[in-house]
Structures are given as C-alpha cells and as structure tokens.
Amino acid sequence: MAAKEESSLETQLAKRGFESVSVTRPMAAGEVKVEATKLHRLPTVGGEPVYAQIPVSLSVKLDKSGRIQSIEGDTPSDSAVKDAVHFLNGLRERGQVVDETSPSTPDQEGRASAPRPTHQIVRDEQGRRVLRRQRISMV
C-alpha cells in the first residue's frame, strides 16, 4: 500500500475514532488488515464512565479510490476491556492517575500533595472522561 493511500486510510479511520493506526498487511484486493486503538467505555462502578484507548484488529475494505467501504472487528475483545479496567484500577490504587473531577488532597502540612501521576482523566470534545497518559514513570 502506498504511503499516500495509508495516510488517507489513517485520516478516514481517525474520523471514525481510531488512533495509532498501523496497516499490518494487505489482504485480498481492496482489503487491508489494520491494528489501531479505539476509545471505548470501561465498565466502572458508580460515577461517570471513563473511556480508554483499547487495541483492536480491523479488516478494512476499500473501494477503488481508497475510501472505506466497510470495517470489521472494530469492537475490542472482552479480555482487552478487562485488562484496561484492571490497568485503570491499578493506577488508582497506586495514586498514578489524576482525575480532573477530583479535588487535590492536602498533605500533613496542609499543602496540596504533589503526586507524580503518570495518567490523567480529562474531558474530550464530546464531554467524555478519557484516560490519557501524561508521562512515563521509571520506577
């Protein structure tokens, strides 16, 4: 697949909510295998839902001009969703996620504590609460 077509495919998939798009291989005529991430609602208890980017494997059918005709496999697997929930819960337990809706907690001297979160939950353009990586921890 030519770079121009790949870029066009990436743009088309981005408009459908996919990120980190990588064409893994061409398949039958007009069909390609794609690895990407898709924003997906995590099953959480109470409060507003949290969305996270979850890996998906897609089969994309294209017409002769390179436009998407159909997409198969755009729903994350149950195990990928379960892993994402486990990951979010672990971040919360270790204090590595900051939620824009949560007030900061003061330390023993009354100052706002300064944890070094690796992730944050922020609102996107549609008002959804989305888990985003903020930095990488080397510990």
Task: Describe this structure as you would to a colleague.
- There is one protein chain.
- With 139 residues, the protein is an alpha/beta fold.
- The protein contains two helices and seven strands.
- Strands 1, 2, 3, 4, 5, 6 and 7 form a seven-stranded mixed β-sheet that branches.
Keywords:
139 residues; alpha/beta; seven-stranded mixed sheet
Fold topology:
Elements: H1 3-15, E1 18-26, E2 31-42, E3 50-62, E4 68-72, H2 78-93, E5 97-99, E6 119-123, E7 129-133
Parallel strand pairs: 3-7, 5-6
Antiparallel strand pairs: 1-2, 2-3, 3-4, 6-7
| Gyration radius from CA atoms, angstroms | 19 Å
Cα distance, first to last residue?
Answer: 40 Å
Proportion of β residues?
Answer: 35-45%
Uncertain segments of ≥5 residues (pLDDT<50)?
A: none
Give me the secondary-structure category.
Answer: alpha/beta
**Overall form:** elongated
Overall tally of domains: 1
Q: What is the N-to-C order of secondary-structure elements (H for helix, E for strand)?
A: HEEEEHEEE
Number of helices: 2
What is the total tally of β strands? 7
Major beta-sheet overview: 7 strands, mixed
Mean of pLDDT: 82
Helix content: 10-25%
